[in-house]
What does this fold into?
Amino acid sequence: MKTLILSAADRNTPVTAAKIIQAGGLVAIPTETVYGLGANAMDAEAVSKIFLAKGRPQDNPLIIHISCAEELNLYCHDIPEAAWLLASHFWPGPLTMVLPVRDCIPKQTTAGLNTVAVRCPKSEVTRALIREAGVPIAAPSANLSGKPSTTTAEHVLNDYGTDGKIDAIIDGGPCEVGVESTIVDLTGKKPRLLRPGGVTPEELTALLGELEVDRAVLGQISNDAVVRAPGMKYKHYAPSAEVYIISGSSEAAAAYIRRRFTDGDAVLCYKEELPLYEGCNPTAYGSIQDIRTLSSGLFAALRTLDRPEIKTIYARCPEGGGVAYAVGNRLKKAAAFRIVNAEAEE
Ligand code: AMP
Ligand code: MG
It folds into this structure.
């Protein structure tokens, strides 16, 4: 069986893809964050196929995707005012909320938790598909587990091929945000940030008045730790090489890296820094003048550098809040929090 490649621009795509979802199949879906690997969130067997195809650990729950905020009532209960407020500001968009789950969502989807993560994505074709299928779509990032996330349909093809490991891919072009959604847990006393993304901590705090930041966001979590977002403990977002973040000024970082650079090394930097790395075959993932280019370009660049001959990647990482906070979080996780200050090392 071949994998169907469907275009987001084809008006038959939502109907074709909805039939696959209703029959328990897997469809890779475009969203503004990353491409997801989707199945009917209410069908335990279909959801199990996602874990199998990705090689995803079973204790890592999935995000369910809905087509509009009103559908929250169908899958969640005891929904606080804060959830409706966030939905009215940020949906459709890159924000996921964790809420108490109703029994209609099987434990395969939630990894047995009594909560579920829910999001309403921006992509028109994906929302049309959800409406057409009449069910929520459970979808983690479409990458094979442990690989950098997928931000184009081609990335999905690279991971699964076309021989039917997944039933279809909807090609909606490159993802606009490029890093996974912001996750906020609304089941505790205070709203808690479980994963930074395109909706920034500043935007959330402005609306909610308060926001706790989970420790999984701030540092490396050991594999047997009990954490609120189980996915955050896995080595994530990473190419197979060891990644080191080199902080400090552009000049100090380039001097540090150039002193050490040998065969099997690679440099991941900002567009503006390319001239500093002549002879080191650098890869730029965006411009430091426009952080959104760094978020949309990060995973594509990490995928380019995910080659057996590359053993070490020296990476430049933006500092600060806003979207830089999400980019920094993904890169630091890819680097297992190995960060060197080039200015202190000179
Ligand atoms: P991915 O689908 O690959 O973006 O990963 C989904 C993320 O959402 C993982 O980090 C999960 O741990 C997190 N997540 C999903 N469901 C829940 C939940 N009920 N409570 C907390 N985190 C969740
Ligand atoms: Mg993922």
